[in-house]
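Technical note accompanying the year-one report. For the benefit of new consortium partners, we illustrate the data format agreed upon in the data management plan: each record pairs a sequence with a structure-token string. No post-processing was applied to the example shown here.
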Amino acid sequence: MDISKNFSISGGLLWKLVSRWDVRSRGFRVRDRIVPFTPVDVSFALGLSIVGKSLVVEEDQQCQTLDLFKGDEVTINNIHKQLRCHKKKLVNFVRLYILLAFAEFYFPKTGNKVFTRFLKQLDDLDSLDAHSWGIAVYNFVVSSLCESSVMLKDGKNKAQRHLNGCAAILQIWAFNHLSLGKVPVVSRFSFPRLLNWPVISMQKKNIEKAFEKNMIIDRVVATEEELKYDIVNAALFEQGEQFVDVIDYHRLVVENKDFKERITVLEYEVRMMKEARVNTPFEDEVVQDDRQLVNFITEDEVGTLAGDVGHNTPFNDDANVAENQLKSKSNMATRMRKKPRKRGKRTRLNL
């Protein structure tokens, strides 16, 4: 990584995060919810992989890297001393330089102490990228958060309170999830996010207010540029976030908006139909298969209707009229008995 200037860590923010750390859920309490702190946050912030071989801490730490110190204690000062001694031995210089990065940035401890449990991995430089270093950094800072939060709750004084681990991750987390701080006006890179270091210079009361007022972002979304990196896609897949192309994402947003508009129109039409039914002066109930309506038209009325039909037929005679009346009367009465008519409720109109 090309880091051109020192990072400014907000001590007030760090201890506010420690005070809001929830040990069980591994997240920070923000108002009425827990906002998670996950390995993906580490991957986005530092560009480290969270997939690959797990780092196993072995009891026997005898290795080539440790032999470089010739029995001296592994401290930050001694690492600098050995770097000056091995300038011309490239392999040893690289091992010591990575160890210094472990001691001062990825796994920092208080004072001059060095976290030495991964010394043996430095013997095989070619296999370093096969390990899930992001998980190791995440677990280290989480362990320190749990320990520090307990000390804070127990009322330990400031001299006894300390926070190990990569504090830069926590400041970037606050920027990503709570929009705390400002990024540089001009930025050359967007990944890892450490290269766009957020500057947070706020008083404690303003930091507290930000936790109560600022918009909460539960899940950080990868940018278009970040999705070009295999580390990011692997991290999202590992956490169950399937890779979604940016174009497909915008298409889904447009389709979702269209569905919402159509639902709004349908809801309006249904509401208008209900209002129309309530306001109508006529009843629309239909009588279904009411046997009492069989006699609504009597047989005499059927005969009268049949006679009228016969009278209006130009080719009728007395015999035909009588025959037609008998057929019409029989047919109409029979049909009414077998299949009663369905009638709507009559409404009397006062004119």
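Partners are asked to follow this layout when depositing records. The radius of gyration is 42 Å.
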